[in-house]
Amino acid sequence: MYPPRFEYSAPRSLEEALDLLAEVGDEGRVLAGGQSLLPMMKLRLAAPAHLVDINRLPGLGSITDTNGEISIGALVRHADVATDPTVAAHAPLLAAAAPWIADPLVRNRGTLCGSVAHCDPEGDWNSLMLAVGATVVATSREGTRTIPIADFVVDFFTNALRPGEMVTEVRVPKAGPRTGGAYLKLERKIGDYATVGVATHLRLDESGRIAQAGIALTSVAPKNLKVTEAEELLVGNEPSDELFAEAAEVAARTCQPTSDVRGPAEYKRAVVRTYTERGLRRALAEARGEA
Ligand SMILES: Cc1cc2nc3c(=O)[nH]c(=O)nc-3n(C[C@H](O)[C@H](O)[C@H](O)COP(=O)(O)OP(=O)(O)OC[C@H]3O[C@@H](n4cnc5c(N)ncnc54)[C@H](O)[C@@H]3O)c2cc1C
């Protein structure tokens, strides 16, 4: 199917793009990799009047190591995250998860920031971002603001951007010593969206107790779901199989899966329980240097 008619602009500077976004307001949309927006337009699930293509903007395609964080620019593709040495060294959880996004064609065009902005509850990146505590940088003509990912992911396909704003980068805290994580994704076949995805992240203190915990779920709620209750249960405690089983039970209780072509709700809930427990064990082994 063809999409409805729309205006198209391809600005060559960030200033020009921000002017255009301010002008078109609610009627406009950023076009990044186009891997979600264009299919939605062809299916007539989205009908923006004006697309602002950001692919010609300079300076948004790099991954940089700054002030204890990795900055991922708005034109960094999923495939870049999979192979970038800075990501491999300082955010190994993201490097390991990137090959699980879609298929090679989509990974070569789709962007991490586009996925974050899209807020599809079946998207993988926002679970990872919630687990590691990322920050989104939103830029408009008025300036720049940083938004914690937990505030940015508002609801089903809904983010916290204001009209005229675009995501220019996502910042991820560098994995320090005694940290580990896992992204476990059940998919029907390679390249499919998750039936269930579970991101886990742990940081231990010097005595081996859990200093920081992140757990977030894909495809089992109207948005990527941060399981705060399970995270709070873990923090301050000695890691153990019993504790992880308890946290997994909380995650299974908290998620809101629905039955669909990918499986019945109760099956998905059982996978959340198993993957949360397994993910926490893997995160612990990595944090202890045993993985
Ligand atoms: C066959 C197929 C399989 C897929 N499988 C998976 C999968 O397994 N896991 C997964 O996570 N995803 C999957 N996807 C989605 C894919 O990862 C997309 O690349 C991603 O969701 C969106 O990134 P994009 O750069 O293509 O964004 P676009 O499609 O260009 O944009 C998506 C939305 O985000 C907005 N947007 C994009 N960039 C910005 C920005 N910088 N600032 C503000 N708003 C912005 C757009 O306006 C639009 O509303 C799949 C897609 C396809 C086609």
Shape: globular
Distance between the termini: 48 Å
CATH class of the largest domain: Alpha Beta
Number of individual domains: 3
Q: Main sheet?
A: 5 strands, antiparallel
Q: Count of DSSP helices?
A: 12
What's the total count of β strands?
14
Strand order of the largest sheet: 4-5-10-6-7
The CATH topology of the largest domain is given as: Uridine Diphospho-n-acetylenolpyruvylglucosamine Reductase, domain 3
Helix content: 25-40%
> Runs with pLDDT <50, length 5+?
none
Structural class by SSE content? alpha+beta
Helix/strand layout:
Layout: E1 7-9, H1 14-24, E2 28-31, H2 37-42, E3 50-53, E4 63-66, E5 69-73, H3 78-83, H4 85-90, H5 92-97, H6 104-109, H7 112-118, H8 125-132, E6 135-140, E7 143-148, H9 149-152, E8 153-155, E9 158-159, E10 166-173, E11 179-186, E12 196-204, E13 210-218, E14 225-226, H10 228-234, H11 241-254, H12 265-287
Parallel strand pairs: 1-3, 2-3
Antiparallel strand pairs: 4-5, 5-10, 6-7, 6-10, 8-9, 11-12, 12-13, 13-14
Helix pairs in contact: 10-11, 11-12
Bound molecules: flavin-adenine dinucleotide.
Key traits:
291 residues; alpha+beta; Uridine Diphospho-n-acetylenolpyruvylglucosamine Reductase, domain 2; Uridine Diphospho-n-acetylenolpyruvylglucosamine Reductase, domain 3; Enolase-like, domain 1; 12 helices; globular; binds flavin-adenine dinucleotide
